[in-house]
Amino acid sequence: MTRHINRSEFSAFLGQTLNVAQYRDYCPNGLQVEGRATIARVVTGVTASLALIEAALEWDADTLLVHHGYFWRGEDMRVIGQKQRRLKLLLSNDINLFGYHLPLDSHPELGNNAQLARRLDLEASGRFGDNDIGWIGRCHAPSVKTAADLAMLIEKRLGRMPLLIGDPQQSVGPVAWCTGGAQGMLGEAIEAGASVYISGEISEPTVHLARETGTIYLAAGHHATERYGVQALGEFVAGHFGIEHRFIDIDNPV
Length: 254
Hints:
Blueprint: E1 5-6, H1 7-17, E2 30-33, E3 38-39, E4 41-47, H2 50-58, E5 63-68, H3 81-92, E6 96-99, H4 102-106, H5 112-120, E7 122-128, E8 134-139, H6 147-158, E9 163-165, E10 175-178, H7 186-191, E11 196-199, H8 204-213, E12 216-219, H9 222-225, H10 228-241, E13 244-247
Parallel strand pairs: 4-5, 4-13, 5-6, 10-11, 11-12
Antiparallel strand pairs: 1-3, 2-6, 7-8, 8-10, 9-12
Helix pairs in contact: 5-10
């Protein structure tokens, strides 16, 4: 028999696990759209897109658990266009939406940075940046000696070739990383002692700062670097409560 748990119990457990109260964030963390009072089937995904909601419906899920939810600071507050279509589909099918942004990036075991480190053989020795969101340490993959080697490892482990800024033959020293759209933290990574910085996205000023400081920058993809935290969180919470879980990957090339 499928087990059902109370939504409030599910919410409280996630809030405590991710230590949500300690973060200053750009969106609400936790329950964002209220659906059924009991939870039995959870779908995890990176972003609460229309495609992910539709895929969750096909699996008859009652709950979506994502990294990128809704109601971001500075967004249009009106419920129109795609926001209306997404919310209508959730509400008309009584589906809960839980979103966790910075708390999921930062968690020491389940978070995006921790899970990326596992896949790239990175071992952290310190943190940097606001909320200690950035990580720094060393890459222990035997094959990685140069920046080109690290780029090849990223391609193999994440399934996409990163954009490399800098000398591909430069040796790899201390490596800093922060998943997603953390290109603005390159300066802080350099101050923390990084010779290489890995993030998801890149912007025009990032290129110049990397070149001028001799720092290798690897843009490995926002979506590609953030697929793993929400999967780990879904597996963890499903195992804790004995409920069903499925990760659905809606591909995104950025």
